[in-house]
Amino acid sequence: MSFSPLVDRLLESLRVLPGVGPKSAQRMALHLLERDRPGGERLAAILAQALAEVGYCRRCRTLTEAELCELCRSSRRDERLLCIVESPADMLAIEEAGGYRGQYFVLHGHLSPLDGIGPEDIGLDQLESRLSEGEIDEIILATNPTVEGEATAHYIAAQLEDRDIRLSRLAYGVPMGGELEYVDGGTLSRAFNGRLPFSSV
Amino acid sequence: MSFSPLVDRLLESLRVLPGVGPKSAQRMALHLLERDRPGGERLAAILAQALAEVGYCRRCRTLTEAELCELCRSSRRDERLLCIVESPADMLAIEEAGGYRGQYFVLHGHLSPLDGIGPEDIGLDQLESRLSEGEIDEIILATNPTVEGEATAHYIAAQLEDRDIRLSRLAYGVPMGGELEYVDGGTLSRAFNGRLPFSSV
């Protein structure tokens, strides 16, 4: 129910945005129509342009409108380190945390035989040719700490066995700033099993 | 910081949406680019179309792409009742509550001399000509229960004094389903002053 068929269609199409229900869609549509038409026009134009032009980096498969993303073009990144992540969002999170200065490779998902997602669907053939360029010393398998992410990491590790590349994964443990009381059991056991000498902390 | 200038511009332009901060903008952009390009394209197209075509109803000033909105064209609404609201969102809220079967008039704001918003800016000249059509018995002043909304309602009431039209406003009182403990003092005093004989409840 609304004012007009076109506004109704706008409300409905705003619902494709994650986390946007009927109430937020209404608030957004009315805000743009009543208070910020130039902002809305800019959003419509840039969204259309981004969807038409943004593809995947030829080298690391992250999202970019260029052939190579800014990170792959940068001369200030360590060419010998490669971090494999499931999604561009993971890559962004690692970049925002700072500290990592190597390269990336984005799988855009994880292996999931039941859903028909195999090695090619997550770009592992492309990873092979990336590695054949031959300058990488270490690969950090930074897939999600979920059953599927772990399985994917193990699969990739098995594929790379014959190569002279060091493999590592992110450390498991209790998250910083959290309270032990609220940490789940699986994480707690991992943190106990991986305990370190106090001096190294 | 992101992957590419175009994705950065998309993140930035999503921030025009109310309630969308950097994190949600990122989630939305990645969702559309990674998982729902057709939905994103539909959103871009309909948003552009709505911004270009949706204007104001000639009669009630609500948002519509037609000359008259669906409500003004409907033959099933009571022509003798007119409800004046500040925004299309208020009109929607009243429609969703159900029960009201009259017409509307949308001010798109309230009087605010300090911001230079005078009677013409909220369409009061148009309201005059709307009333000159001469079929309205009662006007319900449903501006917001705020200082500005009340002032606007009083101004409109003064303008209409000479006409043979009954004026009313929404009842003030405690909201249904609330707990008295959490109702603000102003609302509580209003509810006390407006108390009704128990039998009428």
UniProtKB/TrEMBL annotation, chains A, B:
Residues 80-175 form the Toprim domain. Keywords: DNA damage, DNA recombination, DNA repair, Metal-binding, Zinc, Zinc-finger. One of its GO terms (biological process) is DNA recombination. A zinc finger (C4-type) spans 57-72. The keyword Phosphoprotein does not apply. InterPro entries: DNA_Rcmb_RecR (IPR000093), Rcmb_RecR (IPR023627), Rcmb_RecR_Znf (IPR015967), TOPRIM_dom (IPR006171), TOPRIM_RecR (IPR034137). The keyword DNA damage applies. CDD domains: TOPRIM_recR. One of its GO terms (molecular function) is DNA binding. Belongs to the RecR family. May play a role in DNA repair. It seems to be involved in an RecBC-independent recombinational process of DNA repair. It may act with RecF and RecO. HAMAP family: RecR (MF_00017). NCBIfam families: recR. This is Recombination protein RecR. It comes from Pistricoccus aurantiacus.
